[in-house]
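hi! just following up on the protien thing from before. the input was this:
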Amino acid sequence: MLPDSLRNKTTTIYNPFPITKILKLSSEECSPYTKKNTVKLLSIGRFVPQKNYPNLINAMRILKEEYNFPFELIIIGSGPKEEEIKQLISDFSLNDNIQLYPETNNPYKFISKSDIFVLSSDFEGFGNVIVEALICNKKVVSTNCPSGPSEILKNGEFGFLCDINSPKDLANTIYKANNSNLPQGIENRVQDFSIKNIFRDYQKVICDK
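and the predicted 3d structure came back as:
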């Protein structure tokens, strides 16, 4: 733990995001979702234990079996747990509900076509993709994992937080998000991550020294 003398001299500066570029890329044409009258869910991340996709897939099973919730989920990624994830989708008879897509240079066009972005991780360094989803003006459901999601979403002010590794709570939170309005103030929150404002933060730190 930092002593008080150093803690008072530290400041947090966020990663900068090219908001205009992301919005332009998000407008590119694509039609990943195939069913009508479904809630379009999206998750993005490597197929590794940290992302806890079994948590997400179990939540989808609950939504289907207990809520009769009409959804399509797209997961974009790749990694060592891919076959395990495919098997779990098959075991839960979710092949008609869940599609896996390989990693892409433009995930934003997928985000723009979704209704809710979902992050099911056990932990995150920051959670850049949450900011990207907010830039695309989407509802975000995330586990309240260390260390970025709660900070980005301001403890749930700009998104929906749920317990870590709890498929039931994740399913409940997705259901709640779908029946809630888009949180107000997202556009203003997004500006906190703009290149202009991050540059200003660096400038302030440098000039104050």
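The chain has a mean pLDDT of 94.
The domain at 19-208 is CATH 3.40.50.2000 (Rossmann fold).
cheers
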